[in-house]
Specification:
By secondary structure, the protein is of the alpha+beta class. It has three helices and five strands.
């Protein structure tokens, strides 16, 4: 999905919560991501989960929502953390299977 956003919607609550984990979330969102809906965590707004890499190549998990603000559509991170090895292995396996399926459809 190609989505144009105007920027990030930060406040003291979500900025400090996400910074504690040390991930450069804004840099991660400028790279290729795996994004999926997360309907189980909110009934008031659409939430999403993203997996990507930071600038150092570490996998990062981010929960976020999209907000319409005066400057346009913004990403509002809710929480972020580096992924554990077991999660990374699971993600890489799913990604490889999805790529295999995609290649079979294209071929």
């Amino acid at each position: 999905m190609d989505l144009s956003v105007a920027g990030f919607d930060w406040d003291r609550g979500n900025l400090e919560k996400c910074r504690r984990h040390g991930a450069d979330i804004e840099a991660m969102f400028r790279r290729i991501l795996w994004v999926t809906p997360d309907p189980s965590h909110s009934t008031r707004e659409s939430r999403f989960r993203a997996i990507g890499m930071d600038l150092t190549g570490r996998y990062v998990f981010v929960a976020f929502t999209l907000r319409n603000v005066t400057s346009g559509l913004s990403i509002r991170p809710i929480s972020a953390r580096y992924m554990h090895k077991k999660e990374i292995l699971h993600y890489e396996k799913q990604k490889a299977e999805a790529e295999k399926t995609s290649d079979a459809k294209d071929g």
